[in-house]
Design goal:
Layout lengths: L2 H20 L4 E2 L10 E6 L5 E7 L9 E10 L5 H13 L4 E7 L4 E11 L8 H33 L8 H12 L1
Antiparallel strand pairs: 1-2, 2-3, 3-4, 4-6, 5-6
Helix pairs in contact: 1-3
Length: 181
């Protein structure tokens, strides 16, 4: 196993431990990541809604990749100008990550997602004072991801419609495809 794959595995493992401490049962297996050594991660959910935490270290050196956190707010969203206003307001008030309205007219894919990246170099040391800060930071990012995929998803779909993704392999694949493309 290469150094970067070991780094990915260690960081994702610690993030999984943090997710378990934050909300028991929030970590959801995503079997697609078991197929390729250069990908690692898992789904996130509080029972409804779906998020992903993952890293891709394909053709990169250690400390040069990012851990990605993505939450599905809603998919199959109608095209309405008010949605852009909702996204802009959320971005003005959020402390972590960003919201965006992804529109793909060719595929008919309209989705609202939340996303944040954490640079691997900052996640290398989980010991001492620095490590405690890193753990707390990851906890807050995971909490923001879970909130976006559940609370924000509920609020958004009540006002604008769309579909809340579920913590199942098929929906996690839809989220992964939308967030990595």
């Amino acid at each position: 196993m290469t150094e970067v794959i070991q780094q990915l595995s260690r960081i994702v493992g610690m993030a999984g431990h943090i997710a378990d401490q934050l909300h028991s049962g929030s970590r959801v297996p995503f079997e697609t990541f078991d197929l390729v050594d250069e990908f690692d991660g898992f789904g996130l959910s509080v029972g409804h809604g779906a998020g992903l935490l993952y890293g891709n270290v394909t053709d990169v050196a250690p400390d040069s990749w990012s851990l990605q956190f993505t939450a599905a707010v809603a998919f199959d969203v109608p095209s309405r100008p008010e949605i852009g206003m909702w996204v802009n307001e959320k971005n003005r008030t959020t402390a972590f990550g960003k919201y965006y309205y992804a529109v793909n007219r060719e595929l008919g894919l309209h989705a609202v997602m939340w996303e944040m990246f954490a640079w691997s170099r900052l996640l290398n040391d989980f010991n001492g004072m620095h490590g405690q800060g890193v753990i707390q930071w990851l906890m807050e990012i995971i909490r923001a991801c879970l909130d976006a995929s559940s609370q924000d998803a509920d609020e958004f779909t009540r006002h604008f419609g769309g579909r809340i993704l579920q913590p199942i392999e098929k929906d996690l694949m839809v989220l992964f495809t939308a967030s990595s493309g």
